[in-house]
């Protein structure tokens, strides 16, 4: 029996989520890869309403998970962290450049790809029958208006615009996404996962937008056979217990040797930088201004999903998008990792990030840190 198998809980855990939920995808894929026995159910039972939500900080968020002994964890990052710690960090690369890239892609993909994910879901009516059916499955008891099927449609269509996918910006959002597919396709043609023969934390962040929205809703799914066959194969691979290497992939089920970051992945990072860097910089300024304007913000106060909007330029177009402190909570993990490396390693990491126009993200910090308390993100 391997160490991994021995440390896996005996009782199956319960994952409250849905096939249409972006962040459930991160956890589902992690559980499948780590061999964690789980049952996934819709978050609608009386038990969920009366017992789980209060333990989840009162937030009705997917994913939320519950252990047989009653422990509840809400938030996909916290759930993955919990299991990484428990299992001996099986999906955290040990070498510095690979771990930096894994953490960076985790942040960029799970927080920075919401714009194409929401655009391709909510702008194409052919997705609606599937979405309606899934929302019916997860409509809670005595649903408040925001949580009825119609309420969710209205709210989420609006949040597509709020995230910067306005009517005028559709050509830009689609062009950026199709170029991303192309870059990822070139990478996954050569490597089964981001860093070689085994998934990393970055793969689990990337599967979040690439499954429920971009790899499953009918319209964006239809783009994959034309623009990203190897991305489609990776999406499938991320849902299998085995490594599922392709015939053209090297046979090793390990991360690449010598801390290598392949050129195809550097290209993916260069592409991510196009909107992630200006957006994060603009969001940082706006959120820090907001923090300054809140002298009474108590330590322990819940961090709201959005605190305003920021405007930035991408390829000559202006985008205004909601600013989300959570982006910085995830990004800080890369920043802290790099900051605590020995000088020589840090130098190499900064050089690597410079080569993909991303070094500036190491300095994009908030004036107040974010922590967790009672299953909520809180201002420290
Ligand atoms: N940071 C959270 C975000 C969770 C989240 O936003 N989940 C969405 C579904 S993917 C949700 O439940 N939103 C509430 C709603 O739409 O009612 C995580 O990583 O789990």
Provide structural commentary:
By secondary structure, the protein is an alpha+beta fold. The protein has two domains: 3-87, Glutaredoxin, CATH 3.40.30; 96-379, no CATH class. Helices cover 52% and strands 9% of the residues. The longest helix is centred in the C-terminal third of the chain and has 30 residues, at 263-292. The structure holds glutathione (GSH). Glutathione binds at residues 21-23, 60-63, 75-77, 326. The site of glutathione has 11 residues, from helix 2 and helix 4.
Which residues form runs of ≥5 with pLDDT under 50?
A: none
Adjacency order of strands in the biggest sheet:
2-1-3-4
Report the total helices: 15
Strands, count: 8
Topology at a glance:
Blueprint: H1 3-7, E1 13-16, H2 22-34, E2 38-41, H3 46-55, E3 64-66, E4 72-74, H4 76-87, H5 96-112, H6 114-122, H7 128-137, H8 149-162, H9 170-190, H10 201-211, H11 218-227, H12 229-237, H13 263-292, E5 308-314, E6 317-323, H14 325-339, H15 343-355, E7 370-373, E8 376-379
Parallel strand pairs: 1-2
Antiparallel strand pairs: 1-3, 3-4, 5-6, 7-8
Helix pairs in contact: 2-4, 2-10, 5-10, 5-14, 6-8, 6-9, 9-12, 9-13, 11-12
The chain binds glutathione.
Short précis:
With about 375 residues, the chain is an alpha+beta fold.
Defining traits:
binds glutathione, single chain, 15 helices, two-stranded antiparallel ribbon, 380 residues, globular, 8 strands, 4-stranded mixed sheet, Glutaredoxin, 2 domains, alpha+beta
